[in-house]
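User: Predict the structure for this protein chain, please.
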Amino acid sequence: MRGSIKWQVQEISKSVNHIGTSRHSAKETARSAGARTSAQVAEKTGIHSYRTREAYLKVWRQCLSHSKEHHGVKDITKLTGEHVQSFLSSRIADGVSRQTYGQAAAALGKLESALNSYATSKGLERSYDFRTEIRTLRHEARDLRTMEAGRAFRDPDRVMAGLRDPDYRLTAAIQRETGCRLSEATLIRAEQLRGGGQVEIRGKGGKERTLRMSADTYRQLAARIAEQGEHRVSRDAYRAAVSRAAEAAGERGSNHGFRHLWVQERFREKIGYGMSREQAMAEVSREIGHERPDITLHYLGGR
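Assistant: Here is the predicted structure, written as structure tokens:
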């Protein structure tokens, strides 16, 4: 399909646009056809309100924009479950609220239905399954339940002191000092070390950037890699350990609290250098692996 992202999304949405018809009747029809769970009902029903349509189409545009930027996919009919998973993983990495994530997941589930209906109407030999990939992220998304926009740890040192495993403390120190993502801090190999406290990483979309940490943290990291061949910890186990340590320290949130704090401190630092708010937002956004300056607003507590 050719055309702008906005046009493609609007075109696909026509296949599930049931505004003006009864949502209740549609649900009853779906149940009569064998749907038992709410998810099964959602698969068999369309969009029945302007408000839902506006919210869902916004997510569809964001997903296609993400896929275009990071995977080179410009045609909405060529989206796969892997592309959808990549987009949702980026939302989790950004620390969005659980409600925001849930809405995005629901919207992309509906996009699956829309694309399947479109393919059938056009006689395309193509089928879509996004919901399977969405379900694989459920466990990771659970951690968003306690997240709030802009939630930074007030006392990160106390949280880190509550981590008994030295590898978890090292991982937390890396996040605290660099503002990197969970995925970037939990796996670092020898070839990424650049000396002088610098570690090269390849983030989302294959984009490279350099993390800069204290000499002590870098020394610990290099020693760990020399001993084990790489620095690797389980994301789930580390995430759970940080959440427990945060609760014990009287904090709310998860490992995202380190990233939020780093962004807030970095932003204030750049403002102190005399940068305008817009310049500081743009630079900080790039430093944490994003292109859009407004991403910084999320970490500052605004949307």
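The radius of gyration is 22 Å.
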